[in-house]
Please model this.
Amino acid sequence: MAEDAITRDASADLGEQGRADEAKGPGDKRPAEAPPASAPEQPAAAPAAAPAPKSGKRKFVLIGIVGLLALAAASYAAYYLMVGRFYVSTDDAYVRANNSMLGARVAGHIAAILPGDNALVRAGDVIFRIDDGDYRIAVDAARTRIATQQATIERIGRQVAAAVSSVEQAQAQLASAQAGLKRADLDFDRQQALSTKGFASRATFEVSEAGRDQGAASVRSAQAAYDAAKDNVEVTKAQQAEARAQLAELQTQLAKAERDLEFTNVRAPVDGTFSNRLVNTGDYINVGQRLGNVVPLDGVFIDANYKETQLKRIRTGQRVTIKVDAYGFRKFTGLVDSISPAAGSVFTLLPPDNATGNFTKIVQRLPVRIRVPASVAKQGLLRAGMSVYTTVDTREGAADADAETDLDAPMMIHPQ
Model:
């Protein structure tokens, strides 16, 4: 037992000594307890001359990088001088189309909407159908009035014929009266001659005189009847002309009624895509109200807004590389169609007035119309409003642009 206690005491002393050494750290160790350091430090001093090759390699790499950068800069400068400076680009460009607005020419309730939204339509296709009940009634009423007026014209025509017959009858009566007057004049002259010589009685002379006066009165009466008959013909003919004029007016009203009836079918004016529907079935619409749009995708074009400082070399007919944002790296080639005669700010509702207040110069932009190839437009991939990136190759007009008389060149004139 005594030996076991001695052994435990020795182990405890050794453990306490070890913990004390760990608490002191390496710096507190005695020189006798520290491991010999002179032997491993001598090999570490040998590679001190090695940094010289590493510094030379780094210098060689830096020279190579600088050379590559200089070569790239020279290549870019050569490319810019030979080609790049003739390309003018902008991302302020958009696909446009001559949208046709569908409007109502007559008022009424929407009875049907035939095509669906964003459907392809052809010119003449019915897009909206307006309730046409009232317009059909108007057409029938106009046709009835025309039929009545035509009957009136026929009746007046028969009256004209009767009036002409009356004129002929009055003319015959006038001729008869004139013949009777002539006979009465002869009888009066004969009785007057006999009465002067005393061969005729006074009574006989007076009878012949009265017969002459009666014949003259009959002629005057027949003449008046003849004149009245002729005037009646003229009046009847005037009534006939008035009736015909009224018939023409009624026919115009019928044409308008039929036209209004046709306008109850709102048709597509051009081939394109029906979009932007603004009404629903059953809605009441007024004359001129906007109903929707037809976008002709086959005739799309591009309006690129170039800075005024970029327009020096742009000419009509130059090739344009077009990249559509929606289709990534797909490109196609168009042509410069025309250049706007004024900046966009000129056509605004309230143009800026730089003559008042402080002035800050702002580079203006002018729209350049770019023609899209028909083969590309017919694909229907370009939609109005899409953003595009355009690059104009101005090498064809570079010589004219650099000339001193450039501003007087015919190419600067807006194309007719």
Remarks:
- Residues 1-49, 404-416 have pLDDT under 50 and may be disordered.
- The helical segments are 2-24, 38-44, 51-82, 133-197, 202-263, 374-377, 398-402.
